[in-house]
């Protein structure tokens, strides 16, 4: 019996399961999924969980059930690609024939002193819960700093504004304008929403140090009661420790078949993979589609295509609270209630197909 081991129950490996189960898994293959939590977590919604506008249950989806799917819960401490073994906290180990690494990411602090110690995170469900606890218990008039004005920072700041109208919120952006890689119309819409809802955007910022209740924007000291860090990500440490080629962001370099160049039995999906796109749930799912096809071909002994199809992303969507949003799809900018409804619809469809 061949052993396919999936590390992490995120968007990529959920798509692997969706495509293989219940009827596309060869009779001589069994799957083991290893994750820290007993359910799939909707990471794209952690900003709302941390802000307190949705419940914990709304970001959880049950893993599928199948007689040849084994679940193992624990924290991965080492991936030994030479012995084809995964080591877990507490001493357990799991052997594999094929491995798909989808362990996700953690915050990247860019060597800013105090950032790892004095800021809060929304990178895992455990961290999002802790951030919610901290934010929800703030007294009225408290100041919240959100460092990083990418999609996560924008959605967190806007959702927190709807949840806590009594807080002062500062969003620190390194750029001249919000979302500079996208059309000016989209940036202007987001900025206008923040201006209308009294969220201060601190443009051209460069956070150089974090202390308890204090941020340093270059030489300027800015008091904050809570700081949430959304200013960059990197693969989790256990993935960064794998002795293989990595890019400048410590993501693992892959072949066009999504496996390590020196090991065709080790695949990488999602935030840990070096690809010419920004990490996203959509990208992980598109990768997973191709990984399943490669696995099925190799299991059958079929020849792989000389060139894999280029991954094409549909665009992205973001929310500004529960009633407004923005999207960039097929080179078109969409803003307002329609964009927000579109995002809600995509989330509903995802839960429907995976729940």
Automatic annotation (TrEMBL):
Flavoprotein keyword on record: yes
Residue stretches making up the FAD/NAD(P)-binding domain: 3-281
Keywords: FAD, Flavoprotein, Oxidoreductase
A matching Pfam family: Pyr_redox_2
Domain of life: Bacteria
Cofactor list: FAD
GO molecular function: NAD(P)H dehydrogenase (quinone) activity
GO BP annotations, alphabetical order: aerobic electron transport chain
Keyword Flavoprotein: yes
Protein family per UniProt: Belongs to the NADH dehydrogenase family.
Name of the protein in its database record: FAD-dependent oxidoreductase
Native source species: Jeotgalibacillus proteolyticus
């Amino acid at each position: 019996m061949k052993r396919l081991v999936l590390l992490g129950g995120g968007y990529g490996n959920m798509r692997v399961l969706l495509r293989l189960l219940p009827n596309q898994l060869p009779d001589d293959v069994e799957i083991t999924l290893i994750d820290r939590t007993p359910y799939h977590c909707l990471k794209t919604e952690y900003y709302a969980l941390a802000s307190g506008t949705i419940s914990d249950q709304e970001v959880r989806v049950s893993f599928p059930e199948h007689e040849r799917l084994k679940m193992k819960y624990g924290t991965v401490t080492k991936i030994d690609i030479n012995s084809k073994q995964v080591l877990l906290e507490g001493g357990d180990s799991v052997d594999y024939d094929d491995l798909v690494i989808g362990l996700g990411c953690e915050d990247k602090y860019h060597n800013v002193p105090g950032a790892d110690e004095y800021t809060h995170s929304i990178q895992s469900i455990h961290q999002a819960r802790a951030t919610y606890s901290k934010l929800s218990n703030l007294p009225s008039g408290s100041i919240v700093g959100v460092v990083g004005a990418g999609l996560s920072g924008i959605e967190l700041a806007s959702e927190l504004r709807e949840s806590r109208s009594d807080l002062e919120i500062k969003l620190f952006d390194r750029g001249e304008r919000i979302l500079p890689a996208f059309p000016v119309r989209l940036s202007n819409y987001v900025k206008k929403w923040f201006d209308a809802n009294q969220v201060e955007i601190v443009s051209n910022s460069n956070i150089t140090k974090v202390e308890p209740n204090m941020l340093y924007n270059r030489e300027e000291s800015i008091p904050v009661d809570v700081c949430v860090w959304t200013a960059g990500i990197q693969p989790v440490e256990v993935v960064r420790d794998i002795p293989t080629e990595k890019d400048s962001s410590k993501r693992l370099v892959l072949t066009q078949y999504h496996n390590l160049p020196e090991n065709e039995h080790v695949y990488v999906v999602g935030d840990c993979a070096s690809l010419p796109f920004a990490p996203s749930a959509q990208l992980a799912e598109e990768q997973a589609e191709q990984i399943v096809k490669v696995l099925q071909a190799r299991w059958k002994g079929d020849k792989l295509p000389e060139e894999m199809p280029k991954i094409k992303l549909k665009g992205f969507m973001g929310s500004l609270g529960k009633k407004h949003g923005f999207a960039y799809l097929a080179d078109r900018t969409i803003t307002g209630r329609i964009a927000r409804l579109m995002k809600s619809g995509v989330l509903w469809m995802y839960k429907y197909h995976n729940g």
